[in-house]
Amino acid sequence: MVRALTAVDGCHHVAWLATVDGRPVGIARYVRVTDDTADLAVEVVDEHHGRGLGSVLLEAVATLARANGVTRITATVHPANRASVRLMRRFGLVLHLCDGVLEGESALRLPEPARIDRAAVLDLAVRRAVGAGGPLPCGATASSVA
Ligand SMILES: CC(C)(COP(=O)(O)OP(=O)(O)OC[C@H]1O[C@@H](n2cnc3c(N)ncnc32)[C@H](O)[C@@H]1OP(=O)(O)O)[C@@H](O)C(=O)NCCC(=O)NCCS
Fold first, then answer.
1. Is the peptide bond before 113 cis (omega within 30 degrees of 0)?
2. 18 in ligand 1 pocket by Cβ < 6 Å?
3. pLDDT (tens digit, 9 = 90+) per residue, 21-42?
4. Residue whose CB lies within 8 A of the most ligand 1 atoms, among 86, 93, 112, for a mutation test
5. Which of 47, 69, 126, 127 is the most exposed, having the fewest neighbouring CB atoms within 10 Å of its CB?
6. What is the pLDDT of residues 121-142, one digit of tens each?
7. Model confidence over 72-124: pLDDT tens digits?
8. What residue owns the CA closest to ligand 1's atom 18?
9. Cα–Cα distance between 112 and 93 in angstroms, integer?
10. Is the CB of 79 under 6 A from ligand 1?
11. Domains assigned to the chain
12. 26 by DSSP, 3-state: which?
């Protein structure tokens, strides 16, 4: 499980971490399940709920997903989890109850107005990949996001 969750490559699997005073407090990720579709997930530690972290983390990975050619998203959410239902709907996800959980697959929509500086997120992702000697996020170049 740890191996799978840390196998980020900037293209098929991207994670964006939030820290407070150097401690991790939240993470969002997308994992590509087909060429154009990715599964979205987000988690924030309890004591930082309700401060907008889940929203901005998800917007960061959705921005990178879009830049990397993802046009559709999927997610699975517990029906009682009103915050995540609200979050996922903001990105265009239409959810249906199936075997006790809410599931959906829909076109990815980046919410307007943006709550983050999307160009800065893309720029940071490219710089991080270049600095680490890793692959550039697929389709993105430093000049394309400069
Ligand atoms: C879902 C989760 C990531 C939200 O994180 P968060 O940082 O508290 O989210 P935000 O503060 O950005 O709030 C997101 C939205 O939910 C709303 N919200 C928050 N708590 C709510 C509640 N109890 N009921 C209804 N809406 C709620 C907020 O008002 C906000 O909507 P708005 O921006 O339109 O006002 C967090 O609750 C969590 O980690 N849950 C456990 C993991 C999980 O369920 N992940 C989702 C499955 S992938």
1. yes
2. no
3. 999 999 999 999 999 999 999 9
4. 86
5. 47
6. 999 988 887 777 665 667 665 5
7. 999 999 999 999 999 999 999 999 999 999 999 999 999 999 999 999 999 99
8. 83
9. 15
10. no
11. 2-135 (3.40.630.30)
12. strand
